[in-house]
User: Which sequence fits this backbone?
């Protein structure tokens, strides 16, 4: 009897193990089945005109559901207003500066591997398919998605909506902006390049003066807590400028309505 029970237990545990293995195997093969079906059928894949759009639309839903806007100021569609929290970089033109799919996958699934100490949580619970749609969607956020809305660089003299700053300071900031190469990465009006966020309406993003000052001195100080080995940050540090110049730059940025 004892022997019989023992054997029964062994048989049962073998069956359970086989069941688990079978399930895992099914999941494993499922993730390949779509592509292998296409391969074995040997038929040319007719291009689906809606495939790209559908991918991006699905990405928008994942983006919304994952709460990316809690930390990233972004527009949900080309025509919607910018909204979001200030903890991570603005997504304006993010599709121009972040094209490396591998890097993006790491930044989303394992942010600590590219930015140790980052406040960005891991989204590793998303499926590979969802990550793919998310990257496609974020990739559409280029200079067409964030179009230039102002005709030129000149700020009208009455644009100073911030009584903390004199027009003199704002003008000084504008000159520093042009002479320090900011315009090489940022669009203001129709001038500049779209590597960084479009700053035409920077004041409307609601960044505080303190945030602007710290971001200019060391951009990563406002985003990451720890060391930044391995992360390719694009916005340079401007901590070498005098405090007075930095404040003039902030005055200029806060005048961009
Ligand atoms: C809790 C805040 C938080 C959330 C939520 C968050 N991020 Fe981030 N993200 C950050 C921070 C902070 C950075 C800046 C770099 C760093 O610290 O890793 C960043 C950087 C990025 C970058 C690089 C931006 C650039 O300008 O180069 C991308 C892309 C990105 N996040 C994508 C996403 C996506 C997609 C989601 C939603 C699935 C998301 N993030 C959700 C905080 C967040
Ligand atoms: C080599 C390209 C490059 C240069 C030069 C550059 N930036 Fe940036 N800038 C970026 C990128 C990329 C970001 C997005 C990541 C971040 O916020 O740090 C950014 C972000 C910003 C933001 C944050 C916008 C927001 O509210 O999210 C401001 C403001 C800004 N830059 C101002 C400046 C000023 C002022 C200068 C010149 C003193 C300058 N930048 C020079 C690339 C650049």
Assistant:
């Amino acid at each position: 009897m004892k022997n019989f029970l023992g054997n029964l237990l062994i048989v049962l545990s073998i069956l359970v193990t086989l069941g688990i293995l079978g399930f895992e195997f099914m999941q494993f093969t499922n993730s390949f089945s779509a592509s292998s079906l296409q391969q074995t059928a040997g038929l040319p894949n007719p291009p689906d005109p809606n495939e790209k759009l559908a991918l991006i639309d699905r990405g928008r839903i994942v983006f919304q559901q994952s709460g990316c806007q809690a930390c990233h100021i972004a527009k949900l569609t080309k025509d919607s207003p910018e909204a979001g929290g200030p903890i991570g970089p603005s997504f304006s033109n993010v599709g121009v500066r972040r094209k490396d799919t591998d890097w993006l996958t790491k930044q989303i699934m394992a942010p600590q591997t590219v930015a140790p100490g980052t406040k960005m949580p891991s989204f590793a619970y998303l499926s590979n398919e969802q990550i793919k749609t998310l990257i496609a969607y974020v990739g559409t956020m280029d200079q067409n998605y964030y179009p230039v809305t102002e005709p030129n660089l000149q700020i009208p003299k009455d644009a100073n909506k911030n009584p903390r700053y004199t027009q003199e300071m704002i003008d000084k900031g504008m000159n520093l902006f042009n002479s320090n190469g900011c315009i090489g990465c940022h669009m203001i009006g129709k001038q500049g390049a779209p590597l960084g966020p479009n700053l035409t309406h920077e004041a409307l993003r609601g960044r505080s003066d303190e945030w602007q000052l710290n971001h200019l001195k060391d951009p990563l100080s406002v985003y990451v807590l720890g060391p930044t080995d391995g992360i390719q940050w694009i916005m340079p540090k401007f901590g070498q400028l005098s405090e007075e110049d930095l404040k003039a730059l902030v005055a200029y940025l806060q005048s961009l309505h």
Q: What stands out?
A: The chain has ten helices and no strands. The mean pLDDT is 80. The radius of gyration is 25 Å.
